[in-house]
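Subject: for your reference before the review

Hello V.,

The reviewers asked for a structural picture of the protein, and I figured it would be easier to keep everything in one thread rather than splitting it across files. Below is the amino acid sequence we used in the manuscript, unchanged from the supplementary table.
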Amino acid sequence: MNESEAIFTLESIFNFGKALASSQSQYDVLKISLLSLLGKLKISKGVALIFEDGSFKVVYAVGLKFNYGFKISSGKIPEGITKLSRKFLKNFGFKFSSFISRNKLCYLVPIRWGSSGDFVLALILLGCRDKKFTHREIEYINFIANFTALSLKNIASILDLKRNIYDLKMINEFTQSVLLKKDDEEIFESLALTLMGHFKVEGISVVEFDGAKQKIFSFPKSFEVKKSFLRKILHLDENLILEPAKFGFKNLSLVLFHKNVSDGRVFVLILGKRKENLPFEISDVELIRTIFIATINAIENLKMLSLNYDMKLAYEIQKNLLPKKLPDDDRIEISALSIPSKVVSGDYYDVIQLSEDEIIVAIADVCGKGVSASLLMSNLQASLKSFLLFSSDIKSVVQSLNKIIQINTSPEQFITFFICKIDLRNFVLEYVNAGHNPPILFKKSRYEFLEKGGAVLGVLDDEYEVGKVKIENGDLIFLYTDGVIEAMNSNGEEIGLERVISFLNSNVNLPAGKIVNSIKDLISSFSYGVEQVDDITLLVLKIK
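And here is what came back from the structure prediction:
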């Protein structure tokens, strides 16, 4: 190689690198690469093609005109520069072979990427020339091919990064916007406007399948989804339909499915035709899926906010059902506490002054927790107060409660219930225990359980027995639900009834309010760091 050829080659490489450095797109890179090869090799015609969407698409051509692409198997493309002989062209389709022959193209330069050149990014086809390529020219061609591949990948990485930033910004803006929406319709409308604006689809529908129920949102309203279509898509075992036309769904571009793991509901996103019938790329589908899931999450969050509001409202209502003020009497002292494990509770207590000398005290524990237990508790409270308007006979009251609970609940629901009537003139306590934890009557030197009664409420047609005990100054009656004695520590050990009785025996002379607060502290200390799983209710009565 003489000195002028060496300078010319170095100058060509320098100019090529300088031109690539200023290129803004992959198309520019291939145009520069093609022109560099044509100039250096003194060839008058050529064409550059880039691999996009499963085929090779024309980017730039010199000395010939055409604007179509070719579907070529990348496995048939050679690794280096190749002479386009008739034998070689037999490996490709008629369209590609006839194009090569008609335009007198003689060489193929593959632009490959990967450790072993596994991925074909582009092709450069060159016209013919009289003499063979020299060794130096082949080195130059290989250099151009390698440098072109590197530049294409760098630009692709930059474009991917820009797209990812744009997509993340779009997702963030969408997520922020739907947080401000007040109902499902507004959220779905935001989804529709976002997808229609970004992907140029003519309309969208979202269908929510909840068992046999269907809820449909369409935007615009004219974008209708036929019922026959809905029946058909439910029977498809698909998560994604990229080409709906293959399933007989015309005028659609994409169908996307999402199943809620928590409750089994299925959401289906249906997109209308895209402008110019453009296909969706995999990255497009992932972006759509992310926005769709964000939409569903926003709707679920809206429901949770509404549910939380309803729960707080239910808590306030339930709190108002409990006695606001306990009887103020020189002969008796009463204090109570109720702590729900959830926002609302299935525990209940009540203190009702029947007359100057008679007080009703009741405590109950509804099977279950949360809203359903709270509703049943409210039913019990209303029924108890209604029955007491007509009769103060606690046996008949309990029997009436049992019947009403049986009528209004399913067989698996029941209530443990204890009621007592305290006669402060004669110092007599009458009680009925319907399957509840037996309250404990502490006297000066002993204690006893108040167990007489019958079955839990709501299960059996039972006869209830009335218990009767004499009470006197200094007596203490402790009523509680099972959350008190079943509170657990971090070792899984229950606090137990014996521990509570021992504590009460040692503190029986304290005022009722102090006893209640001390038991609360005892439970809190014992179960420190462990989540409360049951409602806790306790009530202390002291005869002065």
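For the response letter, the relevant points are probably these. The CA atoms of residues 101 and 450 lie 106 Å apart. Residues 135-178 form the longest helix (44 residues).

Happy to draft the paragraph if you're swamped.

O.
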